[in-house]
Amino acid sequence: MYVIVAGGGKVGANVARSLLGMGHELTLVEQRRDRFERLEVEFGHVAMLGDATEITVLERAGIARPPDLVLAVTGDDEDNLVIAQIAREGYEVQKVIARVNDPRNQQHFDLLGIGPTVCATSGILGLVEHEVPEHGLVRLLELRREGLEVVEVLVGPDSPAAGKRVAGLALPDGSRLVSVMRHGVAEIAVGDTVIRPGDQVVAILKPGLEDALRRALVG
């Protein structure tokens, strides 16, 4: 597999190191000369000096082959957006992954259809939510292309769902319970599954139904 990694910071360098260790071919593009010189010592000809938002630089990196994968992982969201757009729209690269540094910029990537994206800040916040049992609903996964979300809900003793069968729950249209974890053991949620206080319920739903699902399961 041939990969272009745009951005030679800690993220880009670590990804490049891992991909090379797996036997893949790649070019690592970095625009800062001081950083490039350090990368060149370790990566040799794999490292390339240049601004990956410029078409001529991407062409020198082999964007016209085209690569099997382009990773836009610079520390600048605007640059990552431009790189991803050039790769996908200008050279029809089928697989593009972009780094989102500021979660507030995620909407711009979504509007332009750039994905999948990776945001460390959002990931950490998701883990924080998961570790706080008082939180009513935790987003586990967002399937942007499919227009779906996977969430987890902790059922409390006063929950309107406690003691009821899944088939008897007033769930919003566009949502479905997937599994129920009780005492560390997960089971597939079916119509006869009874929800108990303390259960961790995983559901899949359309975006915008979070509050309705929370009311049905948490109250």
From TrEMBL:
It comes from the Bacteria. It holds the Pfam family TrkA_C. The keyword Ion transport applies. InterPro entries: K_uptake_TrkA, NAD(P)-bd_dom_sf, RCK_C, RCK_C_sf, RCK_N, Trk_Ktr_HKT_K-transport. GO terms for molecular function: potassium ion transmembrane transporter activity. SUPFAM superfamilies: NAD(P)-binding Rossmann-fold domains, TrkA C-terminal domain-like. Residues 1-125 form the RCK N-terminal domain. The keyword NAD applies. GO terms for cellular component: plasma membrane. Keywords: Ion transport, NAD, Potassium, Potassium transport, Transport. Residues 138-219 form the RCK C-terminal domain. This is Trk system potassium uptake protein TrkA. It comes from Gaiella occulta.
